[in-house]
Amino acid sequence: MLLRTVILGVLALGMIGCAAQPPTHYYDLTAVSAPAKQRLPQSVSLGIGPVTLPELLDQPGVVSRKGDTVVNVATYHIWAGELEPAFTRVLAENVARRLEHDRVWPSPWDNRFRPEYQVRIFVDRFSGEVNGEVVLNLTWSLLGDYGQELIRTQRYRGTVIAEGGYHGYVNALNQLLAAFSEQLASELVGQVPKL
């Protein structure tokens, strides 16, 4: 009888622990619906990537910061897929929409195909504080001649303030990516047709 009571007590505690667990929320980056502002010649093929994100972002949980040195990896707020391919895909789609261009492809590419122009991106920071400042800091390089010729390298930094918990934080990351997409599209129009 005592054993039965102990087992029932342990099961009851286990059920209480499961019931108290908060729900898991999944997030994804999304392309923005932005009107085309400029155009590239349709004969130009443009590749976006590879994109290199900081190693600390390579995990399922959404990463945020508290100050400069404390990093928080959320347990119940996670990415719906890997962040690096999502970043690359959304950036390529945003640039394609801004340029109204059908030949913008995210990396990786098929071995038999390589775009004429390529944008490589090294991200230093794509994080910040939940309900605070969020930063996108990166270096991008434009390569021509199918990735063989360096045309230009430039730094970019953008900041926004996130509000509304993790949902607002992911929206802030998306806003930063959209703002960079718009600037990159403008820079590409100034560089690619001159070659």
What can you see in these coordinates?
This protein has a single domain, classed as Rossmann fold (3-Layer(aba) Sandwich), CATH 3.40.50.10610. 32% of the residues lie in helices and 34% in strands. Strands 5-2-6-7-8 form a 5-stranded mixed beta sheet, with helices on one face. Helix 2 packs across helix 3. The radius of gyration is 22 Å and the shape is elongated. The relative contact order is 0.19. The model has no long low-confidence stretch (mean pLDDT 88).
Shape summary: elongated
What fraction of residues sit in β-strands? 25-35%
The beta-strand count equals 8
CATH homologous superfamily label? ABC-type transport auxiliary lipoprotein component
- Number of helical elements: 3
Name the helicity range: 25-40%
CATH architectural type: 3-Layer(aba) Sandwich
Characteristics:
195 residues; alpha/beta; Rossmann fold; five-stranded mixed beta sheet; three-stranded mixed beta sheet
List the helices and strands and how they pair.
Blueprint: H1 2-19, E1 25-27, E2 46-52, E3 61-66, E4 70-79, H2 83-99, E5 104-106, E6 117-128, E7 133-144, E8 149-161, H3 165-191
Parallel strand pairs: 1-4, 2-5, 2-6
Antiparallel strand pairs: 3-4, 6-7, 7-8
Helix pairs in contact: 2-3
